[in-house]
Structures are given as structure tokens and as C-alpha cells.
Amino acid sequence: MNLLIKNGLVVDPLSAKAEVCDILIEKSNIAKIGKNLNSETKVIDASGKVILPGLIDMHAHLRVPGREDEETILTGSQAAVKGGFTTIMCMPNTNPRIDNASVVDLIKKEGDKTGLLDIIPVGAITKAQEGKELSELAELKDAGCLAVSEDGMSVENSHLLRCALEYSKMLGLLVISHCEEKSLSHGGLMHENLVSTRLGLRGIPDIAETIVLARDIELGRFTGSKIHIAHVSSARSVDLIKRAKDDGVDITAETCPHYIALNDEAVAAFNTNTKINPPLRTEKDRQRIVEAIKSGVIDCIATDHAPHNKAEKELEYNLAPFGTIGFETALSVAITALLENKIIDWIQLARLMSLNPAKRLGLKDKGFIKEGIEANLVIVDPRNEWVVQEEDIVSKSKNSVFMDRKLKGSVEITIYKGKVVFKR
Amino acid sequence: MVRKHHKFVMKETKKLLDKTGIEKALKRLAHEIVEKNKGTEQLVIIGIMTRGAHLAKRLVKAIAEIDGKQPPLGTLDITFYRDDLSMVAEQPIVRKTDLKFDISGKKVILVDDVLYTGRTVRAALTQLIDFGRPQFIQLAVLIDRGFRELPIRADFVGKNIPTAQKEIVEVKLQETDGVDEVVILEKENNQQIKE
Amino acid sequence: MPANNKTKWNRKDLLGLEDLARDEIELILDTADSFKEVLTREVKKVPTLRGKTVVLLFLEPSTRTRTSFELAAKRLSADTVSIASSSSSIVKGESLTDTAKNIEAMNIDAIVLRHSSEGSARMLSQQINAAVINAGDGCHEHPTQALLDIMTIREKKQAIDGLKVSIIGDISHSRVARSNIWGLKKLGAQVTVCGPATLMPRDIESLGVKVCYDINEAIKDADVVNVLRLQLERQKEHLLPSIREYIRLFGIDKERLSVAKKDVLILHPGPVNRGIELSVDVADSPEALILNQVTNGIAVRMAVLYLLCVQTGEK
User: Nearest by CB to B126, which of C34, C38, C47?
Assistant: First the structure.
């Protein structure tokens, strides 16, 4: 499949350059990047558009196996490419958990069948995520995992986590930490502060996140393992991560679009799409997170795409499950909340959503745009304004925290291995 | 008549009664009431809020001047008894009914400013019956303008005024409007105004 | 007071006091005064809501509030239907959305909802056309309770502006406290909340209330003391070491009350844990207006039903 993309603003985070030029794709690779290229092939006019390396999501929930009513590999893939993602990692809290090779294989096979993007399963740290015994991490690695996580919860037993970290270090696996002290967050439904006081909803204090984060940092420092902090939501967490980085701990961190764009006031109308774990926190927290993105303390933006179907979310606030979908809005929210007010530029955005995840996971030839590598690209219309509406959502579940909000910027075309896998 | 807010632009077209006219009418009403009832024995005067209540108060004084005795005074807020609550343009303001005495066995003179469709009086009658069983209820109004929609008639009328449907008869009193007069208002484009 | 009050009621529902303006609250209170008069008559009934149907959907146990609403509806000549059960006995979640749709199909005029989930009244109000009255949604709001508390205060003190009101007890789990804070603040009162630190919600000072942990400080100079009921289960959640200690620190008895103003009013939403938050002699004293609250409760609920069910306007 040959494609010529002309006159787009090509953003390469590796060389830190953003230039208007053409990209010629031959078969599945980028054959040439230059100006005034010509070819006897299909031409995509990208004037006025921005070309980013295919986005990489380090944190998503595809619900397979077990909850195909919420999302399937197919619908999840379609939603992801619509959002500009060409690689996603899916978390192990499925049913059964991704704690052995056969489940990894199942997901990978389904992914290959749809052929829309790369799906890399994340292995569970403990068997069945019961927090009692380590999964066979080497088997998971051999099956294709690049990272392991207990996402959905923390590993409560510090000794067990220490062992997991040491073992993972040996195997070169990244450990992704979901930081949550259950005894502090138990029963909580939103961030604990003025808004929860007004609404009478039981709160989740930020210390539920920071206490475990501090522990995980200490363990990371002690073992020298690679750790990556999932869905950073609070200002205090940013402080802790910065200090850890200054101290030389091998730590990276991600945040999600909703922590960048929203705060706990969004919960005031009791819309269950705002029920997320960790919760939306205060405006001060939101601002710190934006600062941390700008300064680099936070390395990546991940979606934490968490589909739940209507029957589950159309319940009273305390009964609805936590989570918001995120594939289809992530890039647009980043553009609207960060790019529009010049907090970051396109190169930084490409770093946050493509290069840094690729580097952290050790993905070869991913996360940047260069002659000779596989063609995984996103063509973005930076100006298009649109409103998030249920009818347009491709994911099987429609629980978006950004429903009815106006966003700027949308994905026009997503190219995976040289093929157009999404066109708006 | 229960006051309602005039949604339309109104203009005054005629003045029916001035201060003296109202005074004379009330005096005459007082005489008629005392005469017909052969005195003020067992008589109670109950006014329908708002202007009916003020008129009732004046009537009580007028009767006292004739008879020497002042009959008891009560006021009714009929809002909760109206049959048209879901139809009126604005939510009626609720006031407090004040009936400190028992009306059972009494001769009740119900007082209102304008008698029109009769629905206000109907509501007042229903409300009074909930308070007790009077000997009888007689109706005294300052103005009767016709266009009855229920079989209600006044026993004592200050002035009969033929009107057109598009007109509004407005009784203004010192106590509520700063002046004593009765005027006719007309709506600018001949639409019917219902009470 | 009414006179030339031009305030109209034009909300479909009463979900709480947080969103109401001062004049809307006063409109309800003034209307309640008129209804209180009706309750003193021989025939305690007016035909205002004749032909209307009010459903009492109580998915959390309650006898008092439910009876109060039922009486209020009946005194307005409305028909009432009472559905009482615990939200856990009906399959979780199906109860509310499902029940709402079913009720809507029966063409009723108002639903009074009590539910253990915060935001449930709002959720219901978005799903049905009938008026929704929140009779308590989890820890969030209980507007009619606050309104009757304020009405009771108003009867004795005439105005709320400038009054010092202290709310004592488990503030963090109290919808009565929250609604009272909104209502009292909007009417110009100075509010103090007092209770154990573990039962005090975070950052509540930002609502403009004073926080203290010393009962004597809270009662001294107070014009009104509103005492909340203690849920005895809080001890199990480590929020209180023991009931005994709670009584020692926060229980109100005659001795504690001696530092209060001579004409202090004592309110309690009921039922009283006699001997715990209030000593028996205080609960039965003339300063305790608990029975007045009950009477005013019916008047307030009649006013609310009237304002919500009689939606005026050209049809």
C-alpha cells in the first residue's frame, strides 16, 4: 500500500522538529520524508493538518476476556484508532485476569485478527490479582507482556511487591503502579474536600494515593526497578514523583485527560460519568498536574479507558461503577486543554502521547517519524470544533466524562503499518 | 373579586365612582343590610381578601354608626378553594384566613368588591361551610358587573354596571391603592379577559 | 411577609436548599404559615389538590417523615400512594430507574422520595415529568426538615437574620445539617457546627460556618441549638471510641444548657436518642420545640406540595 501525505505539519518528537513537508509511505514503511514529493499513488492532502507519530496508550481497559458486554477487542480497537492510537496496552483486571500466557495469547490473537493496531496486554502482578502469590512473570514476558501491573488496586503486601519489583527488574519488565490505600478510600465516591462536603458524598482523600505512592517510590528506590505511576491525580503525588526523580529513582508517571481538564466541581450534578478512580480532584490539583506536564515531571498522557455499559452507569451515584471511556477524546482534550493555551507545543504533545511511552516500554522504532521505520501516523485537524455526543461514540460503552462538552481538534486519519485504519 | 395581574397593556377609559361615590354606596349597603336583617343580632361580616376584606372593615364601621353595635369581622383567603388554580397566569399569593369566631348559627354577610363570574364567591361559600354551619349567607358587593358563569346572585349591590367582556372593572381603595375610586380599564386589542 | 410579594415558584422539583434563593425559601415559609392556620380548623382540609396523586416512595426506613408527608397530602385533598421498602431489598439499582418509569406511566403528579443514595432525587427528577420532592437523599439534603426547623425558629424569634444557630452532632453524615446550613445562611443567620473531629466534614468552614469541638463554646450565646441524632453504628467505623465518651463531650443536659441564653430554643429532627444527644429532662423541657417541629412539618410539607403541584400558567 503506497500513500503520499502532502503538506502536513510533520511533528517528530525525537529530533524535536515540526516542519511542513511530505511523507511517502511504501508498503508498510515510511520511505521518504521531504518537500515536494511526487508519486504515482494515492495522495492525502494534509494541508492545514498536523501529522503526529501514532499515539501510544499505556493504560486502557479492554474488558476482554469476561466483560464483552462493555467492550470487545474489535470495538475497543475501533475506538482507539479513532482516537489516533496505533499501540495500546490493556490492563489485566479482566475475568479471568491476564495472569498466564493463554490469556495473553487470546487477546493478542483477537488483536491480530482485527489488525487495526498493536495491542500489548499487561500482565497481573499476582495470580488472579488476589495479592497472595506472584504470577509467573517470565511466562507473561515470553507471551508478549512488556509491563505488569495490579491495576484496579495496589499490591497490599509490601514484601510481595518488593519481590515483584526485583523479579521484574531481572526480566526487564516495567511495573505499573496503581496507588490506592483501600482503608482510606473504602466507600469513597469522589475526592474528599469542599465539594464532597457540600454533596454529602463520602470522600476519597488524596492521601489514599500519596501514601502508597510514597511506599512504591521507596521500594523502587530500594530495588532499582523500573516503575511507572498510573493515573496521577493529585498535587502531592506530583511533589513526591519530582523528588523521586531528583533522587535518581527510575520512575516515570502518567496522567489522564480528565485530570488535566476537569476538577471535582464536575461531580456536583451527580452525573455518574464523573465517578472515576482516582477521583477528579480540586482545581489546585489540576493546575499542579498541568504544570507537571509542562515541566516533564509527568511523562505521559494515558487514557485509562474504562468502559461501562448503560445499565451499570444509569444507577445511583454510590452504585455506579468507577470509570470513563477515553480513547476517542484523549487527543482532543490534550489539544483543547494544553495546546490551545500554549502550555505545551506539538512536539511536547507528541512526546507525551507517543515518544515517552515508546521509550519507557522499549518499543523499537515507535513514537517518532523517520525515514525507514514502520508508518504509524495520525493526521490531526487542529481546528475542528466538535461536541462529544453519544451517537458518535464508537466504543461499545458510552460513559464519557466529556459528554456534551465542546472540544477542539480531531483525528482525521490514522495510519497503522502503512494502512489507513481510520478515516473521519 | 380576586385581584389578578393584568398581563396586557390597559388603559383607563371611564371613572365610575369617586371617593364620595364609594362612601355613599357603602352607607347605603350598610342601611340595607341592617334593614333586611332587622338589626345586627347574630350578624357577622366576612370579607374576601384583599379588597373585599377592606370593604368589609369599612362596612362594619358603617353598620356600627347606624345600629350602635359593631358586628364581628372576619377575612377569607380563598386561594386554596379556587377552581382555576392551574389556569391563572400567575401563582396567586397566599394570605392568611382570619376567622376567630365560630360561624355556626350566625348570619353571615359575605363581602367582595366586584361580582363577576361568581367563581370567587363559590369558593368562599365552600370554604365557609368547612368552618361551620351558618344560619344563612348573604352576599354584599360594591359592584355587580354581570356575566355570571354560576348561579350566584348578590343580596346587596352598591352599583350595577353593565360592561363588555373586554373591560376590567378595577376597584381602588385607599388601603391598598392609595386612592378611593372605581374605574373601567380596557385592553388594547379586544381580547376577552377571564377572571 | 406576603403583602406585595412578587416571588413566584417556578421549579418543577424541590431537591434541596442549596439552589434556592432567599425569596424562594421565604415564599415556602410564608405559604406554610397559611397552611398552619388550616390545621387549626375543625375541618383540617382544603380542596386545593383534589384529584392530584402524590406517591410517597420511601426506600429508606422512616415513619415520621412519611406520615407527615402523607398527612400533608391528604389535608390538601390529594390522593396518596405509599411505597415503602428498603433499597437493598429490591435488586440494587433496578429499583429507582425502573420504578420511576413505571410510576410515570401511572400519570401521577408528585413523588416524595427518600433514598439512601446522594443525588437520587435529582436522578429521579430527570427521569420523570412529575414533581419530585426530596425527603432525604443519603447524606446530601433534607430540605423540608430544614424548612420546618427554620419555620419553628421564625415563629419564636420572628427573624432569622443575625441569629446564632449551633448545630451539634455528626455533621459529616447529616443531610439535616447540610440543608439547615444552606437555609439558615441564606436567611442571614450565623451558623456554628460542633461535634467530634472525626464526624466533621472536610473544609466545611468554606461554607461560611464556624467550626468548634467544644460543646460549651457552641452553646454559649446561641439563640438556637439544633441537636442531631447520633447513629449508633458510627462507633463500629472507628469514628467514635464509644457512645459514653460522646455523651460526656457532646451530650446536652440541663447543666450544659445553663450557659446558654435564657430564651434559647432547642430543636431536634427526631427521633431522639433519649439520654444520648439530649438528656431526658431536656428532651421533655419547654425549650425543646420538638413537637412544634412536628406540627410545622405538616404545614411546610403542605406548602411544598401546593407550590409544586399547582403549577400555574396558560395550558
Answer: C47
